[in-house]
Backbone:
């Protein structure tokens, strides 16, 4: 049976992991390769590296990071952040990542998703969508656009790390990304992100129902129970978490054990 | 198995490096190549692959590798196909119009509607023949990493080495003499995937 995936996400700035794992005795808690191995051994089903480097001058550093990390990592690796052209994507795949994720660049020009999917295959194109709920009674005109907000819209797509509103309806957008060739969606609730009160179940299930590709839920994980809910009621195919793993609040093993006890199919740690 | 020369067929597919790194970590000497002579000289050949059958067949053709692959398999050289490298072995595919390599009778089909596609993630594999050298000591129901939108449907169940359930029971590995292919990615399947490659290298060593 296909299992639900548990995916730790690491932020990388100028080649160093920031907000890194702080509870185990690592030689270097900022070293992406060491952390990747650590999470692989812990039972992570995949890893996501998010490049948050502000300066594009440092972009080449991420390729070096990926080369080094993928040397000894035998689970799938996704890299996102700052990729905005076919050439950027090709270089990152050549460096050894299995999938890349597009966010702002996809909103800026969705034909990039289609072009990348045609060129490299949908299996390696993840589209990251940051969504925030539309305030009730917000005055929204129906412009009739393919994926613009309408009076019924519940969530809006944001870019630039959740700072910039786009006027795009998140569910329509996800459906569009599916149609043009995304292989998977990484859906982050900007309302829940960082709060540890749980994932946005309504958002996740609305998107999961609307598309025919896998959905990774992100934003709000604070306990194993939260992962259970988003994988069941939220209908997510995978759950991403950062701080609960990085700070050792729960280990991947504890989360997986909890999920298994509640009937969620997972890849057992002993199957490593 | 240390030092086994493995030619990884380079026709522009995406996952060459990850296959090479996995084999390297096991002490083999992988060589990514599109030179038929280098393939012939190798102890074993790996056909990797990702994406669409159509474009892969076009790429194999433009690299003039179709006959090379067929000859290698017919000559009895140990051969491992990964993911698309399994699908390409069949006659034809519902994904586009191109004929495939036609080494194993059967067709590559689309998953039934209503399923999330690609079939992406860790799924369990049930082996038909656990005594096969490549699948030895790998427990039934072990998890391997899949990412694919089509599945192979062989005409004869004799070639089916393993099955996996996703909407239906599909053929997740084939074995036929010197030839083994998996729909899943051993190079992305953690220690169990590496074990499978190690078994393959040991089989190559025993044949040498």
Residues:
């Amino acid at each position: 049976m296909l299992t639900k995936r548990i995916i730790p996400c690491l932020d990388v700035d100028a080649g160093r992991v920031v907000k890194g794992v702080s509870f185990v005795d690592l030689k270097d808690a900022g070293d992406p390769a060491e952390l990747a191995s650590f999470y692989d051994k812990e039972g992570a089903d995949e890893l996501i590296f998010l490049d948050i480097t502000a300066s594009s001058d440092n972009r080449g550093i991420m390729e070096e990071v990926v080369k080094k990390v993928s040397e000894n990592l035998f689970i799938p690796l996704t890299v996102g952040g700052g990729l905005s052209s076919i050439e950027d994507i090709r270089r990152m795949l050549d460096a050894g990542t299995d999938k890349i994720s597009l966010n702002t660049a996809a909103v800026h020009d969705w034909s990039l998703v289609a072009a990348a999917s045609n060129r490299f295959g949908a299996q390696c194109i993840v589209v990251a969508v940051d969504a925030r709920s539309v305030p009730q009674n917000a005055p929204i005109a129906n412009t009739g656009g393919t994926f613009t907000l309408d009076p019924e819209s519940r969530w809006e797509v944001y870019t630039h790390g959740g700072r910039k509103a786009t006027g795009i309806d998140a569910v329509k957008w996800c459906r569009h990304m599916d149609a043009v060739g995304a292989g998977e969606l990484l859906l982050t609730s900007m309302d829940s992100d960082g709060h540890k009160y749980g994932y946005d179940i309504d958002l996740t299930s609305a998107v999961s129902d609307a598309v025919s590709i896998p959905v990774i839920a992100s934003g709000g994980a604070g306990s194993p129970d939260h992962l259970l809910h988003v994988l069941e009621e939220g209908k997510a195919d995978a759950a991403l978490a950062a701080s609960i793993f990085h700070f050792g609040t729960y280990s991947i093993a504890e989360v997986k054990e909890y999920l298994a006890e509640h009937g969620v199919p997972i890849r057992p740690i002993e199957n490593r | 198995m240390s030092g086994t020369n493995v030619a990884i067929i380079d026709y522009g597919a995406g996952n060459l490096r990850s296959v090479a790194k996995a084999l390297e970590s096991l002490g083999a000497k992988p060589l990514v190549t599109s030179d038929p002579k280098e393939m012939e000289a190798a102890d074993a050949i790996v056909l990797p692959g990702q994406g669409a059958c159509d474009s892969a067949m076009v790429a194999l053709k433009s690299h003039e590798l179709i006959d090379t692959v067929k000859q290698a398999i017919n000559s009895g050289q140990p051969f491992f196909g990964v993911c698309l490298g399994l699908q390409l072995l069949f006659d034809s595919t519902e994904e586009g119009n191109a004929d495939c390599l036609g080494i194993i009778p059967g067709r590559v089909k689309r998953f039934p509607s209503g399923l999330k596609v690609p079939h992406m993630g860790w799924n369990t594999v049930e082996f038909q023949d656990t005594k096969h050298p490549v699948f030895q000591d790998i427990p039934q129901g072990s998890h391997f990493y899949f990412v694919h939108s089509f599945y192979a449907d062989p005409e004869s169940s004799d070639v089916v080495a393993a099955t996996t359930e996703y909407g239906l029971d599909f053929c997740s590995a084939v074995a036929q003499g010197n030839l083994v292919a998996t729909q899943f990615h051993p190079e992305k399947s953690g220690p169990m995937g590496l074990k499978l490659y190690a078994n393959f290298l040991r089989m190559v060593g025993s044949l040498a």
The mean pLDDT of chain B is 93.
